[in-house]
Amino acid sequence: MTEDVYRLKSPEGVETELPVRKGTVGPDVVDIARLYRDQRVFTYDPGFVSTGSCESDITYIDGEEGILMYRGYPVEQLAANSSFIEVSYLLLNGELPTEQQLSEFDNTIRMHTMLNDGMLSFFKGFRYNAHPMAMLSAVVGSMSAYYHEEMDSSNPLHRDIFAHRILAKLPTIAAAAYKLNSGQPFIYPRNDLNFTENLLHMLFAVPAEPYEIDPVAAEALDLLFILHADHEQNCSTSTVRMAGSSGANPYSAIAAGISALWGPAHGGANEAVLNMLEEIGDVSQIGKYVEKAKDKNDAFRLMGFGHRVYKNFDPRATIIREMAHKVLKQLDRKDTPMFDLALELEQVALQDDYFVEKNLYPNVDFYSGIIYRALGIPTSMFTVMFALGRSVGWTAHWREMISDPSGKIARPRQLYTGPVARDYTAIEER
Ligand code: SDX
Prior knowledge:
This protein is mostly helical. 50% of the residues lie in helices and 6% in strands. The protein is built from 18 helices and 6 strands. The strands form 2 sheets. It has a 3-stranded antiparallel sheet with strand order 1-2-3. The chain has a 3-stranded antiparallel sheet with strand order 4-5-6. A hairpin with a 7-residue loop joins β2 (15-21) and β3 (29-30). α14 (315-330) runs parallel beside α17 (364-374). It is globular. The structure holds s-citryldethia Coenzyme A (SDX).
């Protein structure tokens, strides 16, 4: 039996035993909490490549094997058999619901979809072409202005109400942002529609005529939301945990997560992939752009490729690619050149030594935009769609963090490389 400690010896010979902690599956962790006290040194890991920030029961990823599980259930099985509302219940509560639990949860979400009408007035203040991610983070942040009384984080009922409001109201806010951009009137939610049908209705219905929901579109969106629902300690989820660790209002923590997701290195990549495909334009240009992506002196990267954790195929990308084929066929879309271009780009990159040696594979963002575009969703709304799926993951992680009795405020240290102490000089002497 290997000893469950790592022994660290300083250059001066001071020894520290660092305990090893084991999870149910995946890499062990070395607990370094006592390191600074014993050795007066910090660890150093910019970007947290090798750092575990917390203990979690929610999602497990194996980057080498391309494994993703929500509460132990492989994402492939949930994608094939479940719904986003059922997966949301699973992520929030840890177990799949009974029929009655699912019905009650689904009904609760339907009953929370409306916004306080005062919140709608915020949209009158945005320019018509404001980016919907900016509007989403701003209006979600304003929820902390409406709900700061009933937000005692130590109260399980308040934590449930928070989860229901985030899950139910983000689609309404997202659709309101889209309607502002499109110059159309805001469409109120309908409680007789399920989660994705309601979103399609609020996005695409107009008062002038009836709107018929396409079941293919509703099914495709539901699957995309399942695949985007959670992903361990990614940048935006870690942001939510860090902001929430100070005891800040959780709506503000979710707004911080939305802002972090917006970056093109993270959830903003799905919008960047479509912009990149449009820039490449034609399969004849693929070679030129693949060379640009490999050129260290060129800032261009192949958007939708590579991942901090997956050094194999992102299991979500595989499912989304197959779904893209199906959706384009079912919608009888002729304008598939963008999809054909993406397929060809993937083939070229995966046969190039640079991408093979660096384990750069398509990630969740590479194909998702093809489907959103086929459903009539504009590129500027792609990361908003990512946020709608990830909202339940952020909420589940916030609840896990805030319920941890040993929880502390997140406050990392640094390696200081600035000037040593020096005296102030009068301006005449400078
Ligand atoms: C998401 O963390 C999550 O789980 C995120 C996410 C989730 O569900 O929450 O999965 C969602 O954000 C997916 C990733 C979306 N981003 C993109 O598609 C943007 C393009 N990809 C890259 O920017 C990059 O791959 C990252 C940001 C995703 C990962 O970057 P890392 O882990 O910090 O790796 P790195 O930047 O150090 O790259 C390692 C090497 C570098 O070359 P060297 O310095 O070793 O010579 O690979 C190269 C990079 O230059 N590289 C790329 C590349 N990605 C990495 N080269 C060309 N094109 C790329 N896309």
